[in-house]
Amino acid sequence: MSEVPAFEDIRYDRPASRVARITLARPEKHNAQGLRMLYEINDALDIAMDDDEVNVVVIASEGKNFSSGHDLSDRVKIGELRPTVLGFGGYRHKGPQGHMSREQEVYLGFCWRWRNLPKPIIVAVQGKAIAGGLMLIWPFDLIIASDDAEFSDPVVAFGMNGHEFFVHAFEIGHRRAKQMLFTGEPIGAEEARTLGMVSEVVPRAELESRTLAIAEKIASRPAIGLKTAKMSVNQSMDAMGLWNAVQSAFNLHQFGHANN
Ligand code: ZN
């Protein structure tokens, strides 16, 4: 196993054979994502991908809610904690130029990078996942939700189109996506399952055990089969225009920020 650094906003462990787990560990902040958490998630995923003893990754969270989205109180500047990863440049410019670069790096760039990682990644969701909280769910492969899980993206209230990884129509269908965005109201776990966005709904007390059971079952299968199956489904989504659609919405998202 690769050397695991001392993370602050997440935990990394190996809860079962061939399974790695990343746990969001800021429950007192409802797992709001500051820059440090996003870089730590990215680092932890790299460790899991590079570890030949890991076939499947689980992403879980501590506390009542999965994630309240971006940490709006975060004052860390990009490049302050560690070198940037994706190299868009212009991060220190004031105004829309610097803002777009920041979001290209830690929001859209990370989401797209994570979405294309080769190993199956399962997310366990309880409580609320709001706006940027969906950014830590939708890039991944299976979503196990506890029956109290709720998914929302209410940022139309702030003159924005939606959070930065705009796959809403692919996840829940175009009409439901519009209703979710226009009203800002959440979608519950059971409805999300019927829409095909959530893989399974389980009682809160069984979320961890059921997620690990699915992870272990998948992890027992050949890595190369898992990798090529994942790539094939992802490429099917790309053939339907997912990446082009995400980038178009990201451009409008940047317009929204500039307009504000
Ligand atoms: Zn944004």
Morphology call = globular
- Unreliable residue runs: none
Terminal CA distance: 46 Å
Distinct small-molecule ligands in the complex: zinc ion
- Sheet/helix structural class: alpha/beta
**Average pLDDT for all residues:** 97
Strand order of the largest sheet: 1-2-3-4-6-9
Describe the main β-sheet briefly. 6 strands, mixed
- Helical segment tally? 8
Rg computed from alpha carbons, rounded to a whole number of angstroms? 17 Å
Q: How many beta-strand segments?
A: 9
Helix percentage: 40-55%
Residue fraction in strands: 15-25%
| Helix-strand topology string | EEHEHEEEEHHEHEHHH
Briefly characterize the structure:
With 260 residues, this protein is of the alpha/beta class. It has eight helices and nine strands. A six-stranded mixed sheet has the order 1-2-3-4-6-9, sandwiched between helices. It has a three-stranded mixed sheet with strand order 5-7-8.
